[in-house]
Amino acid sequence: MNASSEELYLEAEADIKSNHYAEAFKKYEGILYEEPDSAPAHNSMGWLYKTQFDDYAKAENHFLTAIKCDPLYPHSYFHIAALLMDMERFDELRQHLEKCLRVRTIDKSWVYGRFALSEELRQNYEKAVFYFEKAVLASQNDEKIKDYRQDMERCQMKTDILKKHKENQESQSN
Hints:
mainly alpha, 2 domains, elongated
């Protein structure tokens, strides 16, 4: 990005923090008109389309374009993962996360955490715990590790509840 686009981008980011989405949208459009290969602007446009318009197709297009423009820009990978999880496109999410493991600018503990959340949503709690453990091993942040431990405890609680429900169903069918 040139200096003018960088300044405009920072203004747009400030607009988003102030909930001035229309102003931010116009600024991102201006940046993309001048610099159509701006990964940060595409990423932010994708975020706006996803969160403000619920237009997942346009959001996905912008996130993927950002990745093509700058394969090391990490934010688009995070957002596309969230979009795929929201859409329950778990097979595509798995492929995306496997790709993320090969991108050197992406925190690997985050990737394993997303693998874990995906498994948790599918009620595969043992697999979820496995991936949360991998996230702990890949992390050097004490706060994140504490969060992953809480995530594992939540999965254990869900495992216990699921087991209890299965036992109740079995006893009722006898």
